Structure formats: C-alpha cells, structure tokens
Amino acid sequence: MKNILKKMIVAVMVLSMLSMTGLPILDNTVTVQAAVKLSAASLKLKVGQSKQLKVTGTKARVAWKSSNKKVATVTAKGKVTAVAEGTAVISATVNKKAYSCMVLVKYPENPYLSKADFDAKEVAIGDVNIVIPKEWKLSVTEAEDNASIGAFSTSKQPNLMNVYVQKTGEPAPDYKEAKAELESRFSQENIMGGLAETEQGKYVTIEEMKSSDLKTANGTALVAQVKMKYYGTQLNQTAYALMIDNYAIIITYTDAASSDLQKKAEFALNSLRVK
Question: Does 132 score more than 80 pLDDT?
C-alpha cells in the first residue's frame, strides 16, 4: 500500500512540475464533432406565417433555397414564409451537402365561416374562394374569356345566385378608376346588346336601372339594380361588381328566387378570398 501511495504522490508531483515548467502534457481526450442537422424536416404553415430554420453542428456557410417560391420563400438566414397554398422543399446546403425540409402551406380558415348565421361552407370558383350556405350546390364552367362562372342552386330553386370570376391580367385600379369600367358593363345599352344575341332577349324589357356603392371587406363594390319584365313577369335583378388583385368579380341574383338572397349575396361578397 505504501508503494502505491508513493507512486501516486510521485506522479502528481511530476505533473505539477511539468505544468510549472511549461512542458507539454499528453491529452488522451477524444473530441467528437457534432453532426450537422437542420432544425426541422417538415413544416406546416398557414399563408402569411413564417418560421425560422437553423442548421446546427457547423459554422460553415449555409446556402438556402426554395423549390417553389410561389408557395414558400426563404431568406439568406433561413427564415421561411408561406406565400400560397401548396408544397415546397426548403434546402440548406453546407459544404456541398444538402439538408431538406418539406413545407406544407394551407390557407387559414375563412373567418366568415364562423360569422355566418347559417350553415356555411367555403367553395372555389377558379382562383376565388367564397362562403355560401351548405345546402347550395355549385356548378362551375370555364368561359372563353379567361373566366370561371359559378352557378349556385338548390333542388327547389335553380340558379339562386351566379358568380362570374374573370382574371384581368393586371392589378385592380382604385375604385374611382374601376367604377367607370364597371358601370359600362352594366349600362342598359350593354345589357340589351348582350340579350339581343339570345332567344330570351326578345322577351326582356328593362324598365329602370340604378347604381350605388357598397363598402365591403374587400373594397368598394358597384351595385347595379335592374327592374325588368321577362315574358311579362316583373323581375328585379341585382348585380355586385368588385375588382380584387387581378380579378373582376360579379355576383348576381334575382329577388324572385329567394327573399334573403340579398343578405347572402352580400355576405358572400365580404367572404371572397383570392388564392
């Protein structure tokens, strides 16, 4: 035991002397390099949300890239922002090796779904989403003039409401500028000119037309009200025209179909969302 203690004391003294004299001490410690990792392999985001991605385990330069910038973008520092519904792959390249994160982007729930005082659903007409009563059925047709037309109906009342969505190809002007174009679409001359090309047009007589402005959650809409006779029957038709982003949107209904259509048409107008 004395010999063991003696050897230990000698060893400690030698180490102390080496440290004092500045001579190197052998270090048998093994350094394990941290693995390079991306902070997330997948993300689920709502349109407009952002999330910071990070690469750990390295101090080397990181190159960030998005496979689909229309869906999600990424900054030079790894901040991901959801732009539109869809999927995108965000890649971080370090020392020629890529690390990927799959990003799934969805639109947030339309707030008008919970505001409706009727059972509601959100449907798509072209690139525009709209909230309508659940019992309404939707049929969509594609027109030749870069437009989609949605017709809503029930089994008892066909064509309760029609929605015309046209992609204009250019940003919407301010309302004062847009109003002149919208009013020209709903002029008596323009309407009668269109009806003249149809068989039904022979039996339509316009008695009165007037227009007004309506403020909505999506901007100011032009409201055109037309009193007409069709096959001798009095009809009152209302049309709402609105320009959002690159779209002209028109909602029409005939009040002979349903007494609460005005409320539901204006609710739909406020609920519009462009993808």
Answer: yes
10 Å Cβ neighbour count for 60? Answer: 11
SS3 at position 152: strand
Name the token pair of 215.
Answer: 């403020």
Residue 101 lies in domain: 37-106
Q: Could you say which of 55, 78, 106 is where a domain stops?
A: 106
Beta bridge partners of 25: none
Parallel, antiparallel or unpaired: strands 120-125 and 55-56: unpaired
Q: What is the pLDDT of residue 7?
A: 45
Using DSSP's 3-state secondary structure scheme, residue 1 falls into coil
Mean pLDDT of 199-224: 83
One-letter amino acid of 175 = Y
| DSSP 8-state code for residue 225 | E
User: Quick one: 92 and 148 in the same domain?
Assistant: no
Helix (H) or strand (E) holding 179: helix 175-185
